[in-house]
């Protein structure tokens, strides 16, 4: 069974995808980690995420096994990831890696922004997880502060809205709900409720 979970930043899609993978015994890939890792590689090399050539070179050199989870989870890495992900060359470099993961025998769960539309349009179940901007900003702010980042809620909201706009407006594989995806709004749900709702959707849609 192949499950695609898409949605904007801090909607809960990653938590839901991990829970679905555990529930149904499937491997999971958070595709956002790949773009974050590319962004961090560019920054650590002294480059600019807006430099398409540098970003593509970093994407082609990426080894998923070497990704530093701590380094890619900062606010700066997230903002830079949104920039590098808009480069067609970066998306092309990472597309095969994601599709290979999706097409492994037995199935998989992938979460991102273009899984159901570009990476795995053949997915058996597609979820589009969303929440209000206010709720998403609050979640993201709590996460960042919990990790020790010195950032205000207003700054997080500004970054989130900027990223939403960039992700939706990019010409190549923009953030959008697949026509056959089931939308799950987690604005008024806690983690357990969101996971339960997602599992129920998959149970009714699974092959």
Summarize the amount of helix as a percent range. 55-70%
Rg, rounded, reads 16 Å
Q: What low-confidence regions span 5 or more consecutive residues with pLDDT below 50?
A: none
The termini sit apart by 7 Å
Order of helices and strands: EHEHHHHHEHEHHEH
Shape: globular
Total helical segments = 10
Q: What is the averaged pLDDT score? A: 94
In total, how many beta strands? Answer: 5
Strand content: 5-15%
What is the strand arrangement across the widest sheet? 2-3-1-4-5
Task: Give the biggest sheet.
Answer: 5 strands, parallel
Structural class: alpha/beta
SSE layout and pairing:
Elements: E1 2-6, H1 13-24, E2 28-30, H2 32-44, H3 52-60, H4 69-72, H5 75-84, H6 88-102, E3 108-112, H7 115-119, E4 125-130, H8 133-146, H9 153-169, E5 182-185, H10 191-205
Parallel strand pairs: 1-3, 1-4, 2-3, 4-5
Which features would summarize this protein structure in a list?
globular, single chain, 207 residues, five-stranded parallel β-sheet, alpha/beta, 55% helix, 10 helices, 5 strands
